[in-house]
Amino acid sequence: xxxxxxxxxxxxxxxxxxxxxxxxxxxxxxxxxxxxxxxxxxxxxxxxxxxxxxxxxxxxxxxxxxxxxxxxxxxxxxxxxxxxxxxxxxxxxxxxxxxxxxxxxxxxxxxxxxxxxxxxxxxxxxxxxxxxxxxxxxxxxxxxxxxxxxxxxxxxxxxxxxxxxxxxxxxxxxxxxxxxxxxxxxxxxxxxxxxxxxxxxxxxxxxxxxxxxxxxxxxxxxxxxxxxxxxxxxxxxxxxxxxxxxxxxxxxxxxxxxxxxxxxxxxxxxxxxxxxxxxxxxxxxxxxxxxxxxxxxxxxxxxxxxxxxxxxxxxxxxxxxxxxxxxxxxxxxxxxxxxxxxxxxxxxxxxxxxxxxxxxxxxxxxxxxxxxxxxxxxxxxxxxxxxxxxxxxxxxxxxxxxxxxxxxxxxxxxxxxxxxxxxxxxxxxxxxxxxxxxxxxxxxxxxxxxx
Length: 451
Fold this sequence. Notes:
By secondary structure, the chain is of the alpha/beta class. Helix content is 51%, strand content 7%. The radius of gyration is 33 Å and the shape is elongated.
């Protein structure tokens, strides 16, 4: 057993309810069956005391720190817990030195648990790298942030990442019922109504710590009835929680996942899903200007010329965000989101740009043909700038028989309109232009067609 932290299978009688109800064994642990179910690799590694360096990644209140405490109880290694937010390199040097001495003189390995490991900067993470690599320590990091963004690649490559999921409603219910048998709550004769439990599960949103803290506060503030029992109703749960806080980090994983869901729902022409994800973003406190910018980009990338009005509406919504502000501008964003979701879709403009950019990158920078060049001075005119240019409005159908690409690229096609929405009309118009140019080349333009 660790001589750094000591735990017992019986529940403590002091401290917050969430601490008192913390699981002490793997059998008591609730949730994360994909990691800790019978026969799962991480469970076997903990039971056999050969867990390697790893990162426990997941939202608050899903059991990361609890699992670390279980590991501390079960391992024969020395176990040291630190918080990355309050620990610097000098403290790390001390614990690394202790780990080296334990390995040299006592044949003990050391597990270093770093809560909030994402708070370590690059230098601090680099400091740990060699000690993780040579086995001086087995590092267990817990984080709510995506390790791909917050952990150095070199350190991340030497650690196994275990993704934790928010607890399911039935997990929360199970732990709430377990908490109601807590010694303190039992002595207070607490009864939680069915409606109160349902609301508590909803407001917890997968965070058992939030649920237990709210339950304890409601129990402490609830007045006993004539039988000295405390009946906790849904309104008392609501009062304890105050406001449901949705999981959303405006610069982290949730930020990117939610905006991705919004964009893909609009692209998929699903207005119901699109408006739902918009609501999630807004309720989570996302910057409305960021949402508006993404809608403006989408209007050209995924709708484009299939509905030219889409960009105008998206731009109008973005301007409304600046001019009107929240909360009223939520209506403008909803208006734009639903319009864009229902609009005809085409990425032909985006594909045309990609094709042209590829040509520019892969081939020489061909000179502009002389007849297309600007000729503001006499010298330029003498050099042939602008010579031979035909003013399109003085030709039949307002289309002249002349080339606009460098001679090396003549005939190249980048923009290919679809048969969707307004692009069907664009396609027909381009075909008319093509036929007109063919007639001009062959000098067989019928007079009646351009009278």
